[in-house]
Design a protein that fits this description.
This protein is mainly α and 214 residues long. Helix 1 packs across helix 4. Keywords: DNA-binding.
């Protein structure tokens, strides 16, 4: 099967690369300085480009922050696909391994780059009302995804039949977000691994079906 998509020209590739570089530079500036303290001049100076070049790709500072958040959400969503999809496992043992993989992936995203939790969980909600709503939408989406994992486990019998799926999902999401925030003060990998393990232990002991081995 061949693709009918036209190959990008060198100029088009260069434009895409510069656009990506602007998003990355904005991400760094917003996380380091804060959204309101960052100006277009700061982003342009970091890349060594003029204001005019910036405005050929983005309307303003508020426009680019949407793309930055899009990028962060996409990175998190990627951790929840393939072998880590909600319906990818069928036993409690597999579920334990799956949640460990997801925990490691999220720890890399939030722990290895402190700009991620600082921007997504601290800075973004204070930008304006629309962005605050978007952050809340992200939390709702995270809760919905977590509920899908739990509902699958209840359906197959390796999680408790009486599990309050939706509220448990919100509680788990809250623990994960709190762990992400803790990385701002305690970014050491050992601490983050211990915290992740503690969260998983609560999940297993609290929601596993009592007659399910492993």
């Amino acid at each position: 099967m061949t693709s009918s998509a036209r190959p990008l020209s060198r100029a088009e590739r260069k434009k895409q690369e510069l656009r990506r570089e602007i998003i990355d530079a904005a991400f760094e500036c917003f996380a380091e300085r804060g959204y309101h303290a960052t100006g277009i001049a700061d982003i342009a100076a970091r890349l060594g480009i003029g204001h005019g070049t910036f405005y050929r790709y983005f309307e303003n500072k508020r426009d680019i922050v949407d793309h930055v958040i899009d990028d962060l959400v996409a990175r998190i969503s990627t951790a929840l696909t393939a072998e880590n999809a909600p319906d990818a496992v069928s036993t409690l043992e597999d579920y334990r391994e799956q949640t460990a993989r997801i925990g490691e992936s999220l720890a890399r995203i939030f722990g290895e780059d402190p700009r991620v939790p600082r921007l997504l969980l601290v800075e973004a909600a204070g930008i304006d009302k629309a962005m605050a709503e978007r952050v809340l939408d992200f939390f709702d989406l995270a809760g919905t995804l977590t509920a899908a994992y739990l509902a699958h486990g209840v359906e197959l019998g390796y999680l408790r039949a009486d599990l309050d799926v939706h509220n448990t999902a919100r509680a788990i999401t809250g623990m994960i977000m709190a762990a992400a925030l803790s990385s701002l003060r305690r970014p050491e990998p050992a601490h983050q691994r211990q915290l992740s393990e503690a969260i998983r232990r609560v999940m297993y002991d609290g929601i596993a079906a009592h007659d399910t081995p492993g």
